[in-house]
């Protein structure tokens, strides 16, 4: 059976080297699905759109929009951090950090946080973007910095999770995991909630830490590496763990999707699933984009399949974002798609950025924010015909 080598087309593989060449033109790579004409009864209405810089600048980095109160924050690869009005898109402030930003922004407790390919974490003031502090960590950061109860949590590409003081950036604690010989280029962003940090690693392991002191509450393997070659044994957790209620949901590459009790680390249901794009959770279902860009809906209480959408196969989809009665995903040609949460049919579509969409769309209330690879930031809402 043909298997698209999506990890080669989407990511460079890290092993202390520059990467593995793309296999474009190979007969073993299936083409992306052609988009079908839609005849739904809803439309995506663009509220506003702004050019906020160079976007990803063709790099595989983790730049995502973030809404915090009235602020909509976004960073670009060349170091610009911009705050906009979440309602109107009107610029509030913009600063140039003169850094190669590789992850961010995170926000909280009056700070806007970004991280760089040089292993720096930068804290800016939420009100005006003024610099507050800079801190050096051990390596490039490809996970969005998080903040909880006065501690900034940073996960680095070399397998460390670090707690920094929110006031001054000084290191408070560090947790270290060994990185496998070969991994996907990427790092999941830790889920942080009420003093608990849930972090996933390239080894397929998940750990729960105290955000205050970095103490380990529990560790568990979501999946165990299998196979003869290092490539076959890759089980990276590159999609972000999601805490919902008393459970954390996590998925791995070449592994499985699993549910874990947040407090005890005890396993719930699991099923075979390979993903690095991400997952989303609503009141009744779990949504996941698999490695072939099929989108799945699974019952939250059992993991049973509810539907599977295959008409966007091999389109390098983002992670899924629940949005009202729909699930939003972006693709490599810059299209935003809305799928029905009930049966998965494609209900609406709009093109955002001709250079593609890599960041998972962000739903806040009735507004959907989308950040394109070329630096286009747009806000959408639903409109009936």
Q: Order of strands across the widest beta sheet?
A: 3-8-9-10-11
> Tally the helices: what do you get?
1
Main β sheet profile: 5 strands, mixed
State the distance separating the first and last CA atoms.
42 Å
Low-pLDDT stretches are 1-27
Instruction: Estimate the mean pLDDT confidence.
Output: 88
Class derived from helix and strand content? mainly beta
- Tell me the radius of gyration: 20 Å
Shape: globular
Helix content: under 10%
* Extended strand count: 35
Assembly context of the chains: single chain
| SS strand fraction | over 45%
Please characterize this protein's 3D structure:
The chain has 385 residues and is mainly β. Helices cover 1% and strands 47% of the residues. The protein has 1 helix and 35 strands. The N and C termini lie far apart (42 Å).
Supply database-style keywords.
mainly beta, 1% helix, four-stranded antiparallel sheet, 385 residues
Can you describe this structure in just a few lines?
The protein has 385 residues and is mainly β. It has one helix and 35 strands. β31 and β32 form a beta hairpin.
Question: What's the helix and strand layout?
Answer:
Blueprint (H helix, E strand, L loop, with lengths): L5 H5 L2 E2 L27 E10 L10 E2 L2 E3 L2 E5 L4 E6 L5 E6 L4 E8 L2 E6 L3 E6 L5 E6 L9 E3 L2 E5 L4 E6 L5 E6 L6 E2 L6 E3 L2 E5 L4 E6 L5 E6 L20 E3 L2 E5 L3 E7 L5 E7 L4 E4 L3 E5 L5 E5 L5 E5 L11 E3 L2 E5 L4 E6 L5 E6 L10 E3 L2 E5 L4 E9 L1
Parallel strand pairs: 3-8
Antiparallel strand pairs: 1-16, 2-35, 4-5, 5-6, 6-7, 8-9, 9-10, 10-11, 12-13, 13-14, 14-15, 17-18, 18-19, 19-20, 21-22, 22-23, 23-24, 25-26, 26-27, 27-28, 29-30, 30-31, 31-32, 33-34, 34-35
């Amino acid at each position: 059976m043909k298997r698209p080598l999506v990890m080669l087309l989407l990511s460079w593989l890290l092993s202390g080297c520059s990467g593995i060449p793309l296999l474009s033109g190979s007969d073993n790579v299936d083409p992306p699905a052609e988009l079908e004409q839609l005849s739904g009864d809803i439309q995506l209405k663009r509220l506003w759109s702004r050019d906020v810089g160079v976007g990803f600048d063709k790099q595989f980095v983790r730049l995502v929009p973030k809404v915090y109160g009235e602020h909509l924050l976004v960073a670009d690869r060349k170091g610009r951090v911009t705050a906009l009005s979440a309602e109107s898109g009107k610029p509030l402030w913009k600063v140039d950090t003169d850094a190669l930003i590789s992850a961010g922004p995170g926000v909280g407790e009056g700070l806007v946080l970004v991280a760089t390919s040089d292993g720096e974490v930068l804290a800016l003031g939420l009100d005006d973007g003024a610099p507050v502090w800079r801190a050096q960590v051990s390596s490039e950061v490809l996970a969005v910095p998080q903040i909880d109860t006065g501690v900034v949590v940073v996960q680095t590409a070399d397998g460390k999770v670090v707690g920094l003081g929110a006031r001054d950036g000084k290191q408070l604690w560090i947790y270290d995991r060994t990185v496998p010989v070969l991994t996907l280029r990427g790092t999941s962003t830790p889920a942080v909630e009420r003093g608990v940090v849930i972090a996933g690693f390239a080894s397929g392991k998940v750990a729960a830490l105290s955000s205050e002191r970095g103490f380990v509450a529990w560790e568990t393997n979501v999946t165990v590496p299998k196979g003869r070659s290092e490539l076959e044994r890759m089980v990276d957790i590159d999609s972000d763990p999601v805490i919902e209620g008393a459970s954390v949901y996590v998925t791995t590459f070449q592994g499985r999707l699993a549910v874990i009790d947040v407090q005890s680390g005890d396993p719930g249901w699991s099923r075979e699933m390979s993903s690095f794009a991400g997952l989303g959770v609503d009141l009744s279902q779990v949504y996941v984009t698999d490695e072939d860009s099929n989108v799945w809906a699974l019952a939250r209480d059992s993991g049973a399949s509810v539907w599977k959408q295959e008409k966007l196969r091999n389109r390098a989809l983002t992670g899924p974002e629940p949005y009202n009665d729909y699930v939003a995903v972006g693709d490599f040609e810059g299209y935003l798609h809305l799928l029905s949460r009930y049966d998965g049919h494609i209900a609406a579509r709009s093109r955002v950025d001709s250079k593609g969409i890599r960041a998972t769309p962000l739903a806040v209330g009735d507004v959907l924010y989308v950040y394109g690879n070329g630096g286009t930031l747009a806000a959408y809402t639903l409109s009936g015909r």
